[in-house]
Every structure is written in C-alpha cells, then in structure tokens.
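FAQ: What does the model actually see?

It sees only this:
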Amino acid sequence: MISNIAYPLTYHTYDVLIIGAGGAGLRAAIEAARGGASVGVISKVPPTRSHTVAAQGGINAALGNVTEDDWRWHAYDTIRGSDWLGDQDAIRYMCKHAPEAIRDLEQMGVPFTRDDQGNIYQRPYGGMSTHYGKGDVAFRACAAADRTGDAMMTGLYDYVKRYPVTFYNEFIVLDLLMREDNQCLGCIAWELDSGALHVFLSLHTIIATGGYGQIFASATSSSTCTGDGNAFALRAGLYVQDMEFVQFHPTGLYGSGILISEAARAEGGILRNKLGERFMERYAPNYLDLASRDVVTRAMIQEIREGRGCGAEGAYIELDLRAIPAERFATYLPGTQSLAKELLGCDVTRDPLPVIPTAHYTMGGIPADLDGKVLGAQGLYCIGEAACASVHGANRLGCNSLLDLVVFGKRTGAYAAQHGKHASLKHTDLPSYAVEKIFARLDRWRYAHGSIDPDWFRTRTQHLTQSYAGIIRDGISLTEGITALEDVRTHMRDACGLHHSTMLWNNGLVTALETENLMMQSLATLHAARFRTESRGAHARSDYPTRDDDHWLVHTLIACSGEWDFTCSTLAVRMAASEGEAPLIPETRHY
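And it is asked to produce this:
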C-alpha cells in the first residue's frame, strides 16, 4: 500500500471501473452489473447533470415506423456522412444493433414520443435516406419531443439503480494508474466534498468522459467537456485519433452558441439569408436544410462571407420556423419554443431566429475497437464521445451520437464484465512511480503562486482555438495557432496562481487541472489539422480544398511525449465489411 503524509489515501477495488456517468457510462454500468461484475462509477457531476442530457433531436434506428427502412441503408448513410473515413465494420455493427438498442431503452422506461398508432415517433434528420441514397428521405430519428437526451438519461439512471452499482459523484479523476507495460490499474480521484484522495483499483477501466468541445470559445457542450479522457491517454503515452474533426452545428444561437436542435429543421424549419432566399437549394438541392451538418455549415459561412448574412453586420443566418403549425411545437419542439422565448423574448411562430455555426461534437478521441479496447493498452477501454471507434469518421450524422453511446456502452460493459469478474488485484500491485507522478501534477497546480487566475488561461486557450482552428483553416494560421498556444502554456506554467490551496471544493484547482487538459487537446487538434493536407468532412482547409483519397483515406494518430512534443502518424481505415458484405468504396457525396 502506498503511504503519503500529505495525501492519505482511501482504497476501492472493482471488477469494472467506469470514469464518466453520461449515457455511455450508465449503459456500460448496467451491462457490467448484469454480467455479475462489481462496478464503480466515478463522475464529475451527478449522472442526470451529464452532457448527454443536452442531446435534443433523437436517436437513429431503422424501425420503419413512418417510411420503409433498413439498417443497411442506415449504415450506408453513416459511411457516406463520415466522408468515407468511418470504420465500416464498426458502423455496420452500430446500425444493425440500433433497433435492439431502442427496444432496450423502451424497456428501461425511456418515454419516447408516440404517433397516432402508438408507435415510437420518428422524424427525418440530416443526411438520412432510403435505398442507399437513391430513395426518399428516411424518417429514422426516434424522439422524445426535442429533449431526447434528458429522457434517455432519466430512464437509464432510474434503471441502473436496480443493480449494486456504486456511484462516486463530484469526484475529479486526476489521472490513470498505469504500469510501464501499459497495463491500466485504475485511477486516483479527488473527492470535492471532503477533499480526500481515493485510489480506485481495477484491471478493467472504462473511460466514458465525453468530448473536448470546450476547447472552443463558442460551443454547445457542457463546461465539463474538457477532454479529460483524451488527456489521460496522452499522458500515459497512448494515442488520440482524428482530432482535427470537430463538428460545428449549423444552428447555435447567435451571440451565445446555445443549440437550436436540428429537429427544428426536421419539422420544417428553413435557413434563409438576408434576401429571404432558401439558399440551401444551391448547395444541396435534394436534401436542402437537412444535408449533412458539414455541408450546411460551410454553406452558411459562404453566404455570410459573400455578403448575404443577416443583421446590421451581416453576421448570422435566420432560421425561419414560421411555417410549422403552432400545435406541432407543443408536441415535438417544446424545448425550442421555450428556449427562444426565455433567451430572446421572441415567438418562433412569428419571428425567425438568428443562428450561426458553433462547435458541437468532437469526432476525434481515443482509438478503440468494437469491444472498446484502447489501442496500445491493456485493461483500458473507451466509449462514447471520448472514443474514436470510428463510427463517425470525418463528420457525424445527427442522432447517431446517442446511438453510439448505448450500442457500444452495452457491448463494452458486457465484455469488461466477462473478462473482469473476480480479477485479482491488490494494493501491493500498485507501483509507487504511478502514484507519485499524479501527486506531482496535483501539487504543481495546488501550490502555484503566480498572479493570474487559471480562468484567464482557459478563456485564452478557447479564443485562440476558435480563431486558428475554426470552420475554415489553412496551414499558415494553424502554425501560428500552435505557436500561440505553446506561448500560453508556458505563461500558465510560470504565472498561474490559485487563491488558496484547500482541497475542499477548490474550484480554482479544478479549473487549473481542466485547463491543462484543454490546452493539450487544443494543441493535438491543431497539429492533426496541420498534418492532414486535404479537406474532408468537418475539416476544411482553404489551401487544400479537395478530398484526397489517394493520400488521406486514413486516420490520423497523435502522440505526446516529454515536454508536450506532439508527433503525427496514420492508421488505416477499416474498409472491410462484416458479415461477408462488400466494402463501400468512396464516392463523391451529393445531397
């Protein structure tokens, strides 16, 4: 047992340890507990305050309640939407198991909206088709009005209480406990309420910490989405993958970035420029406002750059919802209607909404296989937005994110339980160097005596990332951004200071730890974006404006060593299809 006078340690041992209690973490916990494993779940916030609750529009599954549908069409749309960078075996698995995932959620008590026949209500969403893109738009998104994530999390959290799962809420995981052979032994976490440090031992640890959207100044993600899981991996000498691919949602409220769900366009909303034109007719004549998000986002930016933006400064686009019958808002878009009223004081049945693309979802993450096993590690798994399976490739289709959480949360939880039940791990197995490394990082920020608050460095990092790695990028600006971020990192190391060193609810210390994680993700994103000299999906470079399948039909891998020395390499996309099906060959995307 490790002893430390400054930090007395409380020990816990579990067959399966889960870091993160959003949709992926809860689904994994349920399945691991069903498999007979002892399960511990650590979370920054209570589960029903996780970022999953912010998901609005729905969860995709080829149920065929409105239009004919087939999971193979869903898989095709997802592969095409990924701009051919998604791993086809993982995508097919996800889409094939989507109907089963919906049935699971239904049985767990998730209150989906129903149609007149009592079936789960399904709406169309961006990039969804029938007959491999040759048929009509598919109605595939299973919805609980426009609050699907909240409904799903309530159902999952109520259901997980049936099992002997132990939750450690409002704990900050400081880092993974890793042996030199890359075997993960668990983690050390800081309990905010007591100030105590806890050692969690497990031979099967699942990272479900969410994405890194908070690297941007304007983002729809929760303030807790600081890329912690990615930082754990990088500090452990592991890879992160496809970090350059960050999805900007077309409809964030102008001035705040707060999300207006794609469901608003699915129900009949139209994007218009200052001339009142439905400009998506020029960019996506078939899918219009429901083309894939990267296509819609770039169309909006082009309209603004060419002088057709709305408002006194021509800085935004208008989302026109006036054609939607008032009664549909109450049933299908209550959240959108109340949000517009509360934040803007406007009536969406009469007034268009000012919107602008805002950072929304991070396709990059920790590379993991279909069982969630992390590339290059033993006993470590990753699921959800923290992972890169890769089922989203260069661009995620709307309503595939919740599906990703529950499909791979279930599979990984079951796998970890099967291999982790009653695994023998003792306190004496814990190497002292792993613990001392974590203490050193904690003390560096806890006892920082500079004059600048860590919030300043967080905000500065976000604004630099927004400026240099936004929707349209180029090599020169990316290099300038890397230099600027490295300067901020050096400045933080020398000048950051906290108001006090208490371990009881020290928000300044939390911010310092999270900001270091954010800086690491920002730099990884810019390095990956500079490395990929093409435009694909959500990654658009003005100096390399076309897709280059000959050289770049590959994943990017980023590693970090020493004093944050980032190196870039590539990994083949898994084109081979499962179940004997032929792989889909890249083609030009048409919407």
